[in-house]
């Protein structure tokens, strides 16, 4: 690598989407390009991107049935962009990292390890592995870094990770891992940048509420518990994921509905949550628009808020109180009414919301003098991937906050 990297590309590959961002490296990381490929494997696959001037472009492409084809298309498209010529490293979000606690260079050995654990997260890992392999094949001179979503929770207390099942499964890696770690790491860095000592060293609950939703309890800057577990399906109600369920449902539905393990996996990951309860949509914005005239939409919203409130109470108990609550993610950042409903009745935890600040999504949405500070922070997983990649490959690059 040169004395100074010129730019870094970040790849955030999901089950049916790929997000990318390209950052120019200097004292600060400056985003030059952002893109998103959606509906991979479905009809109407499209790529939307914005360049550094803010100009938006949308191009419809042919249906891409497999992520391997999507990866080929994506790299073909990147090679046509002038900015790609300056890329010297690629940082990847890897959802499941098992015991890895820090970003690592992508090597054949690491890829082999990820293949061995791909059954842990069949929704994400196979696609992430394929993207890394494709970049190795097409651009072998590019350094690649894996940034693990589980790493933030790696040092959580044992009781937060242990599952109450026969101990022999623990030796096979079956435990609670937690996810959304890149988002949480970014939020904690933002709290540090804001200079709030209570936020950095006190009792913090981070609520990443998006299509995937989770919370993390943080004390003294370290994760001590989180709502997701062995997989990202556990915990809160999500857009299409169920969150926590009675495990007895597996055998019950197998007996009464002849539901296979594959069908159950499909149901709890893609047919449940807001979509399953509302029978309308997985999009909170659409449900809010339908709430007054459709009881199913109203119930889905109410269940989402009820479960979120329960998790806040649970984590406050684990933390021994609450100093700071942070809302992030698509719902947490953009839905004032959801934030208000979740926080309603939490005055016993010191939460006093400012109706006006919440309505305009101010940085702080609690009233002055509230014992617990409630913040809204726009998370940025891509920027966190870029920072992590630079810190591993070139310590000191991008060291100033963006």
CATH class of the largest domain: Alpha Beta
Beta-strand portion reads: 15-25%
Helix percentage range? 25-40%
| CATH homology group of the largest domain | ATPase, nucleotide binding domain
CATH fold field value of the largest domain: Nucleotidyltransferase, domain 5
Q: Stretches where pLDDT falls below 50 for ≥5 residues?
A: none
Mean pLDDT: 92
Rg over CA atoms, rounded to whole Å, is: 21 Å
- Give the overall form: globular
Short account of what is shown:
The chain is of the alpha/beta class. The protein is built from 15 helices and 13 strands.
What does this structure look like?
There is one protein chain. The chain is globular, with a radius of gyration of 21 Å. It is built from 15 helices and 13 strands. The longest helix is centred in the last third of the chain and has 25 residues, at 295-319. The mean pLDDT is 92. The chain is of the alpha/beta class and 402 residues long. It folds into 2 domains: 7-148, Nucleotidyltransferase, domain 5; 191-376, ATPase, nucleotide binding domain (Nucleotidyltransferase, domain 5). Helix content is 37%, strand content 19%. Helix 5 (181-194) crosses helix 15 (381-393), helix 10 crosses helix 11 and helix 11 (295-319) crosses helix 13. Strands 5-4-3-2-1-6-8-7 form an 8-stranded mixed sheet, sandwiched between helices. The protein has a 5-stranded mixed sheet with strand order 11-10-9-12-13, with helices on both faces.
């Amino acid at each position: 690598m040169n004395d100074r990297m010129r730019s870094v590309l970040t790849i955030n590959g999901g089950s049916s989407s790929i997000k990318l961002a390209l950052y120019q490296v200097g004292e600060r990381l400056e985003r030059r390009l952002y893109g998103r490929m959606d509906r991979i494997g479905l009809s109407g696959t499209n790529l939307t991107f914005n360049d550094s001037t803010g100009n938006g472009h949308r191009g419809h492409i042919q249906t891409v049935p497999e992520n391997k084809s999507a990866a080929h298309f994506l790299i073909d498209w990147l090679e046509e962009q002038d900015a790609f010529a300056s890329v010297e490293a690629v940082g990847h979000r890897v959802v499941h990292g098992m015991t890895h606690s820090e970003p690592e260079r992508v090597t054949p050995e690491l890829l082999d390890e990820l293949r061995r654990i791909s059954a842990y997260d069949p929704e994400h890992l196979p696609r992430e592995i394929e993207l890394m392999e494709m970049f190795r094949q097409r651009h072998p001179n590019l350094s690649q870094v894996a940034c693990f979503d589980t790493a933030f929770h790696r040092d959580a207390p044992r009781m937060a990770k242990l599952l109450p099942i026969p101990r022999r499964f623990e030796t096979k890696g079956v435990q609670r891992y937690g996810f959304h770690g890149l988002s949480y790491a970014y939020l904690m860095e933002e709290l540090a940048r804001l200079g709030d000592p209570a936020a950095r060293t006190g009792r913090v609950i981070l609520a990443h509420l998006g299509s995937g939703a989770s919370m993390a309890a943080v004390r003294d800057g370290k994760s001590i518990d989180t709502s997701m577990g062995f997989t990202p399906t556990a915990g809160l109600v999500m857009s299409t994921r169920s969150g926590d369920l009675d495990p007895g449902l597996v055998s019950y539905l197998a007996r009464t509905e002849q539901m296979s393990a594959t069908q159950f996996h499909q149901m709890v990951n893609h047919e449940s949550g807001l979509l399953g309860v509302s029978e309308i949509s997985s999009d909170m914005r659409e449900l809010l628009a339908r709430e007054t005239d459709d009881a199913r939409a109203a119930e889905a919203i109410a269940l989402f808020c009820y479960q979120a409130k329960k998790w806040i109470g649970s984590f406050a108990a684990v933390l021994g109180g609450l100093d700071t609550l942070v809302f992030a993610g698509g719902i947490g950042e953009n839905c004032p009414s959801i934030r208000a409903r979740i926080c309603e009745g939490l005055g016993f935890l010191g939460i006093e919301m400012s109706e006006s600040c919440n309505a305009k999504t101010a940085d702080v949405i609690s009233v002055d003098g509230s014992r617990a500070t409630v913040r809204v922070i726009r998370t940025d997983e891509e920027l966190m991937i870029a920072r992590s990649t630079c810190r591993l490959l070139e310590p000191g690059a991008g060291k100033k906050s963006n």
